[in-house]
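seq as requested:
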Amino acid sequence: MKNVKKLSANKLRLVEWLTLTKFERMPATQEALAVEIGVSPITVSRWKNDPMVQDEVKRRVRQELATERGNIYGALIREASKGSFQHIKLALEILGDIGTTQPAWKIEIVNLVQQNVITLEQVKEEFGNDLVDELFNATVTASG
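struct tokens:
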């Protein structure tokens, strides 16, 4: 919080602007923001790279995410329950059931296909033919 006191009013305005989605930002462009606060677009670009500005943007975004944590987890669960591969993988990573080196998510994909929750075509679209060949040729070899 002490960094906030060191940021000028114009930099704080930039921080506020950066924490909004592109659809919420007023003015809509960085150039228009520069005009609004009376500096050049190059100055705004330089400020965006200022570690204190970046830290304050991250702090505010984390704070906003923390207040929305329940909604975020709810959306993750809802989409994973619908069979979204990305959401299933993320949910399992959050739970600690899989990591980047563990193949548990691949096993989960095989289970979902076998349970007719998802199709091979969906797996191909999301991950490509190589993964389908790896998972299902290994399954056939292991079981047959």
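The chain has two domains: 2-67, 69-143.
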